[in-house]
Every structure is written in C-alpha cells, then in structure tokens.
Amino acid sequence: MNARLSPLPEITRASWVMVGILGFVWGSTFMVIEIALTGVTPFWLATFRLTIAAMVMAVFWGREGFRMGTDPGNRPHPLSLIWAGAVSSGIPFLLLNWGQQYVTSGFAGTSMAAVPLVVLPMAHFMVAGERLSLRSVIGVTLGFFGVFLLVGQDALHSSGADLEVWGRLACLTVAFCYALNSITVRRIPPINSTALTTIMMASGALITLPFSIAAEGAPGLPPLKAFVALIFLGVISTAAMNQLRVLVIRSAGPTFMTLVNYQVPVWSVVLGALVLSEPLPPSLLIALALILGGMAISQWPVVRRIFVRG
C-alpha cells in the first residue's frame, strides 16, 4: 500500500495578510530603532528589548505548559541553546543598535536582505545535502555585488559620521549572524518553537547585560517617545511577530514565509524616507535592486512555487 502524502499547507487570504504584516512590522523595526536611540543607549536598548520580549514569550510558553516538545533522549545541549541565543539576538542586537548610530535605517534594513544570500553558501559547506546550483551561484554573486556597493564609500552620504563605514560593516555582520543562526537552529534537535524562542531571547538578554553595564553604566530614564519605541520593539517587533511567524509557517509553510525577506528591506527604505526624511541616494536603490534580484534568482523555484500554489 502506498504511503499517504501529507497535504500541502493551504495558502489563504489570511496567509497573505499575515505575511504582509510581518514584512511591514519587521521592515519598520529599523526606523523604530532610530527613534529609540534618541533616548536609549544602544547596548541597553538591546538588553531591554530582549528582556521585554523574553518576558512576553514566557507568558506564551506558560500557556503551553512550559512544554519543551523534545524527545527525552534527544534534547538539545544547553550550550547549543546559549549559542543560538548569542547569534540570533545577543550579538546581532548589540551590533545593529551600535551601527545604526552611524547609518540610516534604510541602509540597515537593506543590509538584512543579504541574509538569504549568506545562508546559501554557508549551508553548502555546513549542512549535508545542501548544495549550490549554478542558478544559486549566479543569484548569490549578483546579490553580493549589491552588498559590495553598500559597503563602498559612496553607498550612502547620509550621516557624515567618522564611523559610518564601521557602522555599515556592523550591520552587515548582523546579517552574517542571522544567517549563521539559521544553520545553528537547523542543527538543534526538534524543540517547541515557543520554548526555543523564549530561551534564545532570555540568553540573548543575559549576554548583552554585561556589555551594557561595562560600556554604558547605569541606564537613565528615557523620554516618552523613546520609551514607546522600546516597548514596540520588545512586545510587537520581537515577541508578537515571532509568534505570528510560527503561525504563518504552520498554516502556509516555510516556503511561503520567505516572502518576508523581500518585503523587509523595501519597507525599511520607504519608511526611513517618509517618516525620518532619510535621503535615497541612487547607489542605495541600486544595491537594493541587486540584492533583491539575487535573492529572486537564487530562490526562483521557491518563489515560483509560492505563486503557482497561491
């Protein structure tokens, strides 16, 4: 008797709405960070954001009975969870907040579009069965031309800060951390997604705390606008959107979830220009087009599958 195939996830109108919300909120995160940085120092912003998010996620996890959802004989090692927290949130949030002092939110968001481009060659060497095709190589190469343009001296004339180049490199290092985290999580034994997210955020907060104390001393009381931005980052951008991400993956599948990658940099550029009056130099727009084009080429079977089914 033939094995029964599991049904493909159904892509509904609600799926499109949810993935649109994810793209918009995560794309606006870089703009909100700029606002929060007007009243909160960068390292403390990372610590507070992760602490708030971990507390909110702990509530969700508690509603699930603090279930780990793991095979008792195949539980992840605590150090692997701590490492996942470091590369998923602890180190990236420190670097991103520091870097955004010297670059625009549009630049920071565009940098994150490099994540899928970094994942493909990284998975080729680190994950069994993952191999780069000729199409993927072409797409990755095109995308990295865009990344090179971002780092170049003429990529952005917005801040004029002496450390702007270092800020650009910090943002691109964040993209590398996120790519490394995607490989790290794939290597962790199956675990309840809410539990994993909560543990990663809590460990990320513990990692950033000593840096905050050592580099910035005791935190001050932020002004109202920065405080509201901080709450938004912790509750909405980090905790709530991670729960919505899980809902999208479970209802429409991880392939459909990749559409978020294309929205985030676009929204970051658009909102940075409209809300923060950030400039839009041609080189930034060209870099964005190259990166998104490289993503589309390297992930063409995925993109085609979404729209054929959707």
From TrEMBL:
Pfam families: EamA
Membrane topology listed for this record: Multi-pass membrane protein
Residues in EamA domain copies: 19-151, 166-297
Protein's UniProt keywords contain rRNA-binding: no
One GO CC term, this protein: membrane
Compartment(s): Membrane
Keywords: Membrane, Transmembrane, Transmembrane helix
Membrane spanning residue stretches: 16-37, 43-61, 81-100, 106-127, 134-153, 165-183, 195-214, 226-247, 259-277, 283-303
Family according to the record: Belongs to the EamA transporter family.
PANTHER family, sorted: EAMA DOMAIN-CONTAINING PROTEIN (PTHR32322:SF2), INNER MEMBRANE TRANSPORTER (PTHR32322)
Record's protein name: Permease of the drug/metabolite transporter (DMT) superfamily
Organism, as annotated: Celeribacter neptunius
